[in-house]
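pasting for ref
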Amino acid sequence: MISSYIISGIIAYLLGSIPTAVWVGKSFYNVDIRTEGSKNAGATNTFRVLGKKPGIIVLLIDILKGVTAVLLPLFLYNLTPGTAEYANIKVITGILAVVGHIFPIYADFNGGKGVATSLGVVIGISPPAAGICIGLFLIVFIASQFVSLGAIVASIAFPITIVLILKEENASMIAFSLILAVAVILAHKKNIKRLLAGNENKMNLFGKKS
């Protein structure tokens, strides 16, 4: 069974490493997204630099990376959903998918912040928690037009939802929710400083940059 953890982890990392924003920017717009805008290889910067259509494509693929990484072990091995073993392997693949997005082997280990891929992981691990987090993200984002603030609030809400609302008892799942929340917050350190200073960029994903 150790081999299944290792193989699943490697596959998850390689899936997460797919640098969607970098490849879309270079292939269709001759732009390295990492040198423009916020210089972040993620969906938000793609929206800002390249526009709505490529932004949506990058967002959906990055989310799909996380979902696929988490659910793939279910099809590769004879695992039973709901068991501790399946929960543990989902946690491992989820973490490595996000690590892959942040440090992609295909793009010189220079990737994005992992928010969209983290969302995909949460969808694959706990759809109810994902629904709550997405709802909170949209409320905060629409009210403030700060993508970063919405992501931070949603990440904090994830472990709270897992523990207090869904009553999760699996220790690895609880630990994962906390690790993911901390990782997202740390990835937004610069954004937090700008929010506190009052100079964070606002953005409307369905309109023009503010």
